[in-house]
Amino acid sequence: MSKPFLSIENMTQTFPDGQGGTLTVFEDATFGIDKGEFVCILGHSGCGKSTIMNILAGLAEPTSGVVKMDGFEVSGPSLDRGVVFQNYSLLPWLSTLKNVTFGVKARYPDWSKAKVEAHAREYLAMVGLEGDVVHRKPSQLSGGMRQRVSIARAFANHPKLLLLDEPFGALDALTRGTIQDELLKIWGGTEQTVFMITHDIDEAILLADRILLMTNGPFARVAESVEITIPRPRNRTDIVEHPNYYAIRNHLVQFLGQRSKELAGQQSGGEPQSPTRVVIDKTGPAPDPEPTTKPQLRAVND
Description:
11 strands, 30% helix, disordered C terminus, single chain, four-stranded antiparallel beta sheet, alpha/beta, seven-stranded mixed beta sheet, Rossmann fold, 22% strand
């Protein structure tokens, strides 16, 4: 069996607890992500989602364990891994266009200025930013526009892995929905591998191929890998009509509301903690109805 594109192997993270001991956030986490997959991770605050994200981005080192991408160990930041944060993280002194060209020039140092700019404009257009708006500074943009710039910047660099840390959390519902659709459109055209943190169950079902579910910390673990058995392309107004939608949603709600607590605090004993694969599919053939016994006829005498 071939190795996944992104492999997390026996990854443990501990921090000082402030009292001379240590706090184990998660222990021996082990899971993989295939090339081109869109994977979301759900879990309550404190379970270590953002810590996992920072390790994958190369912004932090795990206490133990290893992360491999494309066969090589992840160590330190890299242009092969793009990150979109919730707070946009744009350079305030640069225009919208230059916030994107800044990264493209670093990624492709041999490109001409005209080619870099054309490439940046192409990705800005993909998220609906064209015309004079590309010359505005971040302070002159709405929150939704800033997040569009952040997404365009990440995709324009053609990273092998795109990491999204609750990128729509600060946006209103209408803007959030529009940018989710644009994200799906760009991802569908680039086939990049995406790992995304979210607290929104409906958002995860709409976007993901799989959803990883984490138990509560400390000693959190990635307990389940739920496959989204709803075909693409997905439309937010039609997806709720699919037979699998509410079955999947109810499973996620039940896990986060109850089972994440029940499974919390279970130590690994040094064994890899791989998630259980969950497939929910209500579209298969209906089971044969139970055979019914016809009542026997009997003669009735007048």
